[in-house]
Amino acid sequence: MTTYATMPYHLETERLVMRPWDESDATELSALFCERGTETYSVERAREGIRELLAATTMTGIALLPVRRREEGDFIGYCGLIIGRSTLEEPEIAYELFRRAHGRGYATEAAGAVLEAARATGRSRLWATVGTWNTASLRVLEKHGFTQDRVSTEDNGEVAWLTRALP
């Protein structure tokens, strides 16, 4: 089994700052999940989710990080690496932003920083899984060189599986 370096947990770009979760992020994370409109996601449930994310980061050396705009300081979503439908050796990149932050290049910018962080771990490949209906997310991944591997049908619809080599 190959050992990988720990992913950097503090990432900065021209407009964004990503750092580890804090329980104080629970209110905003809850609001982001509620914006999906599929279920109510309580602040306490978000706090528990943050505790689970922090524990997973400690165990795996990879992280899903909150994304804040540098100048405004406001939470706009998350981006990072997860095991998800993949493996620790070839994790998934994942991101989600509030609708108010869509269309401004933030997801592309955050994903670029996470790709650099993934390279720093010594991994050779990443995955992404996205609903085939989500053209904006598919466009972000395409900009970063992800290519479609296959499509699967799941309970929530068709899911595109994309992959990208990390040189």
Q: How is this fold's topology laid out?
A:
Layout: E1 11-12, E2 16-18, H1 26-35, H2 43-60, E3 64-69, E4 75-82, E5 92-97, H3 106-120, E6 125-131, H4 135-143, E7 147-154, E8 157-165
Antiparallel strand pairs: 1-2, 2-3, 3-4, 4-5, 6-8, 7-8
Beta content comes to 25-35%
Q: Give the averaged pLDDT, no decimals.
A: 96
The shape is: globular
The radius of gyration computed from the alpha-carbon positions, rounded to a whole number of angstroms, is: 15 Å
Question: What do you see in this structure?
Answer:
By secondary structure, the protein is an alpha+beta fold. About 30% of the residues lie in helices and about 30% in strands. It contains four helices and eight strands. It has helices at about 25-35, 45-60, 105-120, 135-145, and strands at about 10, 15-20, 65-70, 75-80, 90-95, 125-130, 145-155, 155-165. It has a five-stranded antiparallel sheet with strand order 1-2-3-4-5, sandwiched between helices. Strands 6-8-7 form a three-stranded antiparallel sheet, with helices on one face. Strand 3 and strand 4 form a beta hairpin. The chain is globular and about 35 Å long.
